[in-house]
Amino acid sequence: MSRVLEGALDGAGLRVCVVVSRWNEFVTRRLLEGAEKVLRERGLADGDVTVAWVPGAFELPTAAKWAAASGRYDAVVCLGAVIRGETAHFEYVAGGAAEGIRQAAQETGVPVIFGVLTVDTVEQALSRAGGKDGHKGEEAALAAIEMANLRRLLL
Fold first, then answer.
1. Residue 128 is assigned to a ligand binding site
2. What is the end-to-end Cα distance of the chain in Å, rounded?
3. For 80-127, what is each residue's pLDDT tens digit?
4. Longest dimension (CA), the chain
5. Which residues are the active-site residues?
6. Are 96 and 102 in contact (CB under 8 A)?
7. Could you tell me if residue 154 is inside a domain?
8. Is 83 known as a binding-site position?
9. Range of 85's domain?
10. Which SUPFAM superfamilies would you find in this protein's record (predicted)?
């Protein structure tokens, strides 16, 4: 019989850093509120959650790597909102954020969660920040707890 490991969704005793993009703050603040709500509901104490603001989504990976490499956090959650415009800027920012966040996780071994909305319109962003399409901030927080607990089982 195979041994199956799954990360629990109990956050008690975990320490999480949430890195949030200030760009499109009318969306990212909603994502942050959802993430903080879930982290509290799942047992993290207020003192075990750190919020770090960065200028934009492109800066998320750098701050995430600093947090992950510090040894102070069991997981890092990156929250941002990249909304397509009329230029190729969207692809550079969204792609750079995604690749950088992946790289921060792989280089540090700490779960770094991609909670960055990449959408075409403001309406789509708001719909994913607590609207009809769910709450990606909440989902990112749950993923952080699950991955941090799975990491403890595997190491």
1. yes
2. 21
3. 999 997 777 888 999 999 999 999 999 999 999 999 999 999 999 999
4. 54
5. 89
6. no
7. no
8. yes
9. 16-147
10. Lumazine synthase (SSF52121)
